[in-house]
């Protein structure tokens, strides 16, 4: 198994290699950007085509790619190959593992305190609600993609089904949020099963394409079924949620009046915050519980090896369908929440962009990791807001951050998965066991 | 004699137009170790998979304990407590050893007590797995992965255990351990085993009876020692591999 010496030297590429790689990157950039940046076109006042060249910008971009490529290679060499094991001192390791164990509880406590800490900062509260919505969507999709390994690019469809279920039931029949919430979940789960059936035999890329199409179909149906959904105009006047029948309004029977405190619109925001927090935690709790049951184990096994699953007597049909249905149900809950928070929904909220965003959260977080998904949602949604000051460069910075993350943490922020079966008591391994076998 | 535990009668199976089994007859009696040997592409693995309904039999009959299982869905066949350790082991690499083992018991309605006693039995057989409990399956060595695959199959408390090439890619010493474990299972628990092997010498020494398969047909059968002594077994075994 000894590698030839030539291999050894090629592991640390020389200047020629770096230069060659940078030149290729620069050439690709030149080809790509020559039209995108090099030529600027616009419609003139009479509708004719006006264009002018921006070769200096183009040159700057190509130079940036060239230098960037060299820097990237140097950085990589400095870090060493991606798969090298870096020795970390034991003390640092134990400190790190302690921090790792504390992250989730600290984050949870902090989340509970957000409305208290930022009571007067509406912007932060709104942002926190948005982040939590995506945490919930991420956890929901995590069941399908992270656990069952079914690449679903149309998750937004279930979000839409949930949102429209609540919006239409509430505006047409006057049903309350708390009745509609489970209904929205059930309807979304139903659609999950409907999607599941035709794609049972598909895997990987093929599955992704069909789910992508499914997401678009739902959106197009919503746009075109004007009589039911209001088409592109959406549904307006969706009732706000009530605290089990008590409205959060300045009216006489409102919560503020009942408690004898002064009404503030922030009450509702805080209520919505805790509502989505509860829904997200429910998603998390159910997922964690399911993972320890045979059904959750079967999902993960299905991701690992479908053939082996069948050989072990797992019914892959029902396993896939339950994964789709469970994930869809949480998407439906999140959708109903979205509808009641916005008070207005339209097909524009349910584009492919949303599916991609949620999928990015799951992948960046580390497939199957609950904490990772939460952190990724925070980073994606919160980070996106953080870069707001960068205006048009926001997407660029963001894209770069994602690329870097995928280079250094290819399995996502939290790449390992926690085992679900533990020994009843800590096991002391007797020496006679260790001696046996030389595998 | 009572009816065999598994009876296969003129079984045919094909992948598209390529016929892999051309009328196979095979019996496995309860408490027996039966070896199925043959060269690459003889149809050994196909036979094992056809018993599980993938691919489906084109013609013929498979009976398990007197019941026709030719058309039964794959996952229900496993619930009849026929277990297999598939070719290439196919353990779940990202799941822990303990989870892998639990997967074996999940499909058959096993109580907690069944699971616990199943685990104990597997660990008694392969103490290595107990040490590796919390490790991910993918980090095990080849031999340990094979132990895990067999252990996982045992978790369903099978009446018939089918092993596809358990010695594949293992060092001779480890392969010997695996074969010893199979012998132990058979002697102690009376477990019925069908073992598919290219390693004819090992398999026939272990087995009570053996079948030789060439190009989708059973060409020879007999007791293990009988087959080992016959001059044509070597020839038949090599013939299938060398000729095109």
From TrEMBL, chain A:
Name the keywords, alphabetized: Cell membrane, Membrane, Transmembrane, Transmembrane helix
**Domain High-affinity branched-chain amino acid transport system permease LivHM N-terminal: start-end pairs:** 18-113
Q: How does it sit in the membrane?
A: Multi-pass membrane protein
Domain of life, per the record? Bacteria
- Main subcellular localization, coarse class? membrane
| InterPro entries recorded | ABC_transp_permease (IPR001851), LivHM_N (IPR021807), LivM-like (IPR043428)
Q: Which GO terms describe its molecular function?
A: branched-chain amino acid transmembrane transporter activity
Spans through the membrane: 15-37, 58-79, 99-120, 127-151, 163-194, 206-225, 269-288, 321-344, 356-381, 393-410
Q: Where in the cell is it found?
A: Cell membrane
Record bears the keyword Transmembrane helix: yes
Q: Which CDD domains match?
A: TM_PBP1_LivM_like
Instruction: Spell out the Pfam families in the cross-references.
Output: BPD_transp_2, DUF3382
What's one GO-annotated cellular component? plasma membrane
PANTHER family attached here?
HIGH-AFFINITY BRANCHED-CHAIN AMINO ACID TRANSPORT SYSTEM PERMEASE, HIGH-AFFINITY BRANCHED-CHAIN AMINO ACID TRANSPORT SYSTEM PERMEASE PROTEIN LIVM
Query: What is the protein named?
Result: High-affinity branched-chain amino acid ABC transporter permease LivM
The organism named in the record is Bradyrhizobium australiense
Gene name tied to this protein: livM
Automatic annotation (TrEMBL), chain B:
> Record's superkingdom?
Bacteria
Q: Which UniProt keywords apply?
A: Amino-acid transport, ATP-binding, Nucleotide-binding, Transport
Supply one GO BP term.
L-amino acid transport
Q: PROSITE patterns per the record?
A: ABC_TRANSPORTER_1 (PS00211), ABC_TRANSPORTER_2 (PS50893)
Function according to Swiss-Prot or TrEMBL: Involved in beta-(1-->2)glucan export. Transmembrane domains (TMD) form a pore in the inner membrane and the ATP-binding domain (NBD) is responsible for energy generation.
Pfam families, A to Z: ABC_tran
Q: Which family does it belong to?
A: Belongs to the ABC transporter superfamily.
InterPro entries on file = AAA+_ATPase (IPR003593), ABC_branched_ATPase_LivF/BraG (IPR030660), ABC_transporter-like_ATP-bd (IPR003439), ABC_transporter-like_CS (IPR017871), BCAA_Transport_ATP-bd_LivF (IPR052156), P-loop_NTPase (IPR027417)
ABC transporter domain location, by residue? 6-240
Give the molecular function GO annotations.
Answer: ATP binding; ATP hydrolysis activity; branched-chain amino acid transmembrane transporter activity
Q: Which residues form a coiled coil?
A: none
Q: Has UniProt tagged this entry with the keyword Kinase? A: no
**From which organism does this entry originate?**
Bradyrhizobium retamae
Q: Entry's CDD domains? A: ABC_TM1139_LivF_branched
Q: What is this protein called?
A: ABC transporter ATP-binding protein
């Amino acid at each position: 198994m000894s590698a030839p010496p030539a291999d050894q030297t090629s592991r640390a590429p020389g200047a020629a290699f770096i230069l060659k790689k940078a030149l290729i990157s620069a050439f690709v950039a030149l080809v790509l950007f020559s039209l995108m940046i090099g030529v600027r076109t616009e419609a003139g006042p009479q509708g004719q085509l006006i264009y002018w060249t921006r070769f200096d910008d183009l040159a700057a971009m190509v130079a940036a790619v060239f230098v960037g490529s060299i820097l990237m290679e140097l950085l990589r060499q400095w870090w060493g190959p991606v798969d090298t094991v870096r020795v970390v001192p034991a003390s640092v390791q134990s400190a790190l593992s302690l921090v790792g164990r504390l992250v989730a509880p600290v984050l949870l406590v902090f989340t509970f305190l957000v409305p208290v800490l930022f009571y007067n900062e509406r912007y932060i509260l709104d942002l926190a609600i948005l982040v939590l919505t995506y945490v919930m969507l991420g956890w929901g999709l995590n069941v399908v993609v992270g656990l069952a390994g079914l690449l679903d690019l149309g998750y937004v469809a279930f979000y839409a089904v949930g949102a429209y279920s609540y919006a239409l039931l509430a505006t047409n029949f006057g049903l309350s949020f708390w009745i509609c919430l489970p209904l929205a979940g059930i309807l979304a789960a139903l659609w999950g099963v409907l999607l599941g059936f035709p794609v049972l035999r598909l895997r990987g890329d093929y599955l992704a394409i069909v789910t992508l199409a499914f997401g678009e179909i739902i959106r197009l149906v919503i746009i075109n079924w004007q009589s039911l959904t209001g088409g592109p105009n959406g549904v307006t006047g969706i009732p706000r949620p009530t605290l089990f029948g008590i409205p959060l309004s300045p009216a006489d029977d409102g919560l503020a009046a009942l408690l004898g405190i002064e009404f503030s619109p922030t009450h509702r925001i805080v209520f919505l915050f805790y509502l989505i927090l509860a829904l997200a935690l429910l998603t998390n709790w159910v997922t964690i519980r399911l993972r320890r049951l045979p059904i959750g184990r079967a999902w993960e096994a299905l991701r690992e090896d479908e053939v082996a699953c069948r050989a072990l007597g797992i019914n892959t049909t029902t396993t896939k369908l339950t994964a789709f249905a469970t994930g869809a149900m949480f998407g439906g809950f999140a959708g109903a929440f979205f509808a009641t928070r916005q008070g207005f929904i339209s097909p524009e909220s349910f584009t492919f962009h949303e599916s991609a965003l949620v999928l990015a959260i799951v992948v960046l977080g580390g497939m199957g990791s609950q904490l990772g998904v939460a952190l990724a949602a925070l980073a994606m949604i919160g980070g996106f807001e953080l870069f707001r000051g960068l205006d048009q460069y926001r997407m660029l910075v963001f894209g770069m951050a994602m690329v870097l993350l995928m280079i250094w943490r290819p399995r996502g922020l939290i790449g390992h998965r926690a085992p679900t079966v533990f020994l009843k008591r800590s096991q002391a391994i007797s020496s006679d066991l260790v001696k046996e076998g030389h595998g | 004699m009572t009816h065999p535990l598994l009876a296969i009668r003129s079984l045919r199976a094909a992948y598209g137009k390529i016929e892999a089994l051309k009328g196979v007859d095979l019996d496995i009696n309860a408490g027996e170790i039966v070896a199925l040997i043959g060269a690459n592409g003889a149809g050994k693995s196909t036979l094992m998979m056809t018993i599980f309904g993938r691919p489906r039999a084109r013609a013929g009959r498979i009976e398990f304990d007197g019941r026709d299982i030719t058309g039964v869905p794959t996952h229900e066949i496993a619930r009849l407590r026929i277990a297999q350790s598939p070719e290439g082991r196919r353990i779940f690499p990202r799941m822990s050893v303990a989870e892998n083992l639990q997967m074996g018991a999940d499909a058959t309605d096993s109580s907690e007590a069944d699971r616990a006693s199943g685990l104990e039995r597997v660990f008694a057989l392969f103490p290595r797995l107990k040490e590796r409990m919390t490790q991910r399956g993918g980090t095990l060595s080849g031999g340990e992965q094979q132990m895990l695959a067999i252990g996982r199959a045992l978790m369903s408390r099978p009446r018939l255990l089918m092993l596809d090439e358990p010695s594949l890619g293992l060092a001779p010493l480890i392969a010997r351990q695996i074969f010893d474990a199979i012998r132990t299972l058979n002697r102690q628990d009376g477990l019925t085993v069908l073992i598919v092997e290219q390693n004819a010498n090992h398999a026939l020494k272990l087995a009570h009876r053996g079948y030789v398969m060439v190009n989708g047909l059973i060409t020879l059968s007999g007791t293990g020692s009988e087959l080992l002594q016959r001059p044509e077994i070597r020839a038949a075994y090599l013939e299938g591999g060398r000729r095109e």
